[in-house]
Amino acid sequence: MAGLAPDIQEIVRKDIPLAPYTSFGIGGPADLYAEPKTIEQLEALVTEADKNHIPYYILGGGSNTLFSDKGFRGIVIRPQFKKISTTETPTEASIVAEAGATIAQLIQAAAKSDLSGIEVWVGLPGTIGGAVRGNAGAGGVEIKDMLSSATILDLKQRKIMELSNADLELEYRHSTLKDKPHLIVLSATFHFDKKLPAQEQQLLMKDVLQKRHATQPKGKSAGCAFKNGTDPLTHTIISAGKLIDECGLKGTRVGGIEISTIHGNFLQNTGNATQQDVLDTIALIKKTVKTQKNIDLHEEIQIVPE
Ligand code: EPU
Q1: Which residue is catalytic, options 224, 247, 258, 299?
Q2: Is the Cα dihedral 114, 120, 125, 127 positive or negative?
Q3: 133 is catalytic
Q4: Residue 204: in which H helix or E strand, if any?
Q5: Among 90, 168, 200, 214, which is least packed by CB within 10 angstroms?
Q6: 91: pLDDT strictly greater than 90
Q7: Where are the domains of the chain?
Q8: Which helix (H) or strand (E) holds 131?
Q9: pLDDT confidence of 4, banded at 50, 70, 90?
Q10: Pocket mutation for ligand 1, best pick of 242, 258, 268, 298 (most atoms within 8 Å of C-beta)
């Protein structure tokens, strides 16, 4: 990108393999890659990309992202602003976390002030930005349940605005941000109305982690590949993992992908899986679950075209 301010020029790198930035471990090189440390740097990068008609992709923790083996023809921007600050009054408490902070860091900050409610998120990968965008959740608690508002950069209108919980239209693994990629999370404010001593939180988290380790595989994957399904007759939610399991697909291999033998909704990269292997596995699962169960599954993972 020509004509960049020197401090921005310094952080833009060329031909950076994306696989190491994803939990799937899949992805070829991005033409350009940058880690802005401030919101101003992010804005400057996007402005330059726009001016030069260079596509950009904002990457969070990479725990839900599937890149192409050919990488990305444009600039991948991975925000590194990650400040977390806690405010407490006698009646309420809130934590503001910047987009690049991790869920793990948010949990730690809450525990430090004995603020309770998100212990069940322990083990949840990813950053605040990605978690808000996809209304991440675990253990029956979603971002939606804890979020007051989010500070958003509107890349089209070039303005920063505060969107409330309602404005964000948070639904199961979805928000309005998924439909509007020009809206980028800068930070999010979470409210807490329960207290629990950190030591007790630790015990709870130990239990959650034990359960997670027993029911979800370790290794390279993007977490749950599909959103949970809906029974067409009863309209109840059915675990996609359970459906895949009942269809007898666990352990199936497609190229370098294995459908986890532990949890059917995890597609594991056994070593050198390609994006196409994942896409083929997704197609096989969708077709089989539709034929055997008459249920349509929808991807939770974000597939990024070259
Ligand atoms: N089950 C099976 N076979 C399987 C997987 C699950 O029979 O292969 C059964 C389990 O035994 C259990 C039920 O299905 O009775 C539900 O399973 P689980 O508790 O694992 O919940 P889930 O609905 O499959 C959801 C989230 C997970 C989250 C867990 C725990 C989705 C798509 N998945 O899984 O989130 O960790 O609950 O809160 O909503 C993610 O989003 O990436 C993710 C992993």
Answers
A1: 224
A2: negative
A3: no
A4: helix 198-215
A5: 90
A6: no
A7: 6-77, 84-212, 229-303
A8: helix 128-133
A9: low
A10: 242
